[in-house]
Amino acid sequence: MAETFATKSYPVEKYASFRPTYPPELYQAILDYHQGDKNFAIDLGCGTGIVTTELVRQAEFSYVVGVDPSEAMLDYAKKTSPNAQFVHGRAESLPWVADKSVDLITAGTAAHWFEPAWWKEAERILKPNGTVAVFIYGGLWPDPSHPKADLLRQTMFSFANELGFSSTGNLICHEMYDGLPLPGGGYPTKLAQHKRIDWNRQGLGDRLVMADQMSLRTWRERVYTYGPAHRWRIENPSKVGNKHFDPIEKTIESLKLILEIKDDDDEEKKFLCGHSLSILLFRYENN
């Protein structure tokens, strides 16, 4: 279902505006693990360039290339990330990249769309002391200190089952990559997972590392960029925005009751929530 994000109907501008960015802790974890140079990084499934940009700015790699199958996503990325390069393509085939030339390969909330064969391509292009960093953010969780946190948590996830339209990739995403095909699964490579770091798994923890003060309006806009939500809207145009039939709007109405929001004007009232975050780090087995 990666094709969802490459269709002309997909709202790229809203994706760029309402999807979250990754926290400094993530990039620091990559740098702490990485043993190689910082000359050449490739960001696979780069979308609008959220990670690509930070590999230049925060991680300070000299040359960074973002790769994505969506021309619309790349067009947006090129406008907003002038210090990186962008190439139309897929993770499974990077013929323009020389063998053993890349210091760092990243895939931010994208690897669940890749075919397992991408690991062989990663092994081909990665330098002997290089790093592969695969990371994923999960659903939105309410602030655990909120007095109605449990009820908010149940309600915020209630729309997903009613929406349907989830693919295998979505399910892998929901499981925070517990079921992601790893090196060796039918495509033997010399890469191996060396480390995994989880932040706020299942919304737990004293501090949400991907926290946002969100209004119901921004919550709605973010959720509408999710693949299953976009596919539902395409198939149900007459129900979109109807608080009786649109699963997301029905959830909004329930959240209004919990948060004691009485009318549409109060939809800008902020509440704290955040995403869980996991990163899987790989290098060659003998490193």
UniProtKB/TrEMBL annotation:
Task: Extract the InterPro entries matched here.
Answer: Diverse_substrate_MTase, Methyltransf_11, SAM-dependent_MTases_sf
The Gene Ontology terms for molecular function here are:
S-adenosylmethionine-dependent methyltransferase activity
SUPFAM superfamilies named in the record: S-adenosyl-L-methionine-dependent methyltransferases
* Alphabetically ordered keywords of this record: Methyltransferase, Transferase
User: Is the keyword Cell wall biogenesis/degradation in the record?
Assistant: no
Q: Name one Pfam family in it.
A: Methyltransf_11
What's a BP term from Gene Ontology annotated to this protein? methylation
> Could you tell me which CDD domains the record lists for this protein?
AdoMet_MTases (cd02440)
The similarity annotation says: Belongs to the methyltransferase superfamily.
Q: Mind telling me which PANTHER family this protein's record contains?
A: METHYLTRANSF_11 DOMAIN-CONTAINING PROTEIN, METHYLTRANSFERASE TYPE 11 DOMAIN-CONTAINING PROTEIN
Q: What is this protein called?
A: Methyltransferase type 11 domain-containing protein
- What's the source species for this entry? Austropuccinia psidii MF-1
